[in-house]
Amino acid sequence: MSYTVGQVSAFAGVTVRTLHHYDRTGLLSPGDRSRTGYRRYDDADLARLQQILFYRELGFALDEIAEILADPQANALDHLRTRQRRLAEEIARLQRLAEVAERAVEVQQTGVSLTPEERFEVFGEIAFDLSYATEAQLKWSHSDGHREAMARAAAHTKEDWRRLMGEAADWRAELLAAFDDGEPADGERAMDIAEAHRLHVSRWFTPCPPDMHRRIADDFAADPRAFALVVPPSQQRPGLAGHLHEAVHANASRRAGGRPRPLPQPLPLSNDTPHMRKTHEDPDSHGRLAR
Known about the structure:
Blueprint: H1 5-12, H2 16-25, E1 32-33, E2 39-40, H3 43-57, H4 62-70, H5 72-109, H6 116-123, H7 130-139, H8 144-155, H9 158-180, H10 188-204, H11 210-222, H12 224-227, H13 240-256
Antiparallel strand pairs: 1-2
Keywords: Activator, Coiled coil, DNA-binding, Transcription, Transcription regulation
Region (Disordered): 252-291
GO molecular function: DNA binding; DNA-binding transcription factor activity
């Protein structure tokens, strides 16, 4: 018994155009023709088509399928093992993407509740990089502190953010002035500016002991997206992130009352460093803007 192209298209779930393409490329050329020259598919053709559709479902390219079908015993097993490995890799990649997407949704849902106009008014040039925020979510997803931090940040009112960003702008002006004046990173002025930043983090986001502040500074030196949260690119200077990094470490050693520790090489912020939690602990008792 033989079948027309239209019949095969209907019960195999492929288009007539696809069957014509398989014929032109030699992948599936029907073994018979009608008296008027139309293609006729027999049982052997249908069995071959079934194999082609199986390998297509697994994602094989047509030239790979042709190679397999040319000598199934020699080629099929190796090709299937290779495809199995690639599918496993793709599944892992898609799983990571799904996780990133889920965290991105969380970031958006727990983000700052302001209109675009209000965001520009309050934050100005400071931009929150979604990829950086999402990576932070993935790193700290196990941390109750980070989840609480995101919730507290989301709870800030527009006026809270206005005050916070105003303090940050004043602090940034002091940082830039000291850097432009050539102040050493381990000098009193630079360390006082670093301490002001630590107090700012403590007041508005999360208690920030010196060791945590070190890790935050390590991230400033390692990741431009992190440093852009405190100094927008238009105001940055070459070496400024490293200068702040050194000043924070020097200030942490000063507060500990010991010798300065050797500065580590900049590394990505560790998983236990949630620096987005609001608190009123550790107030600035000296009247300095805690930025």
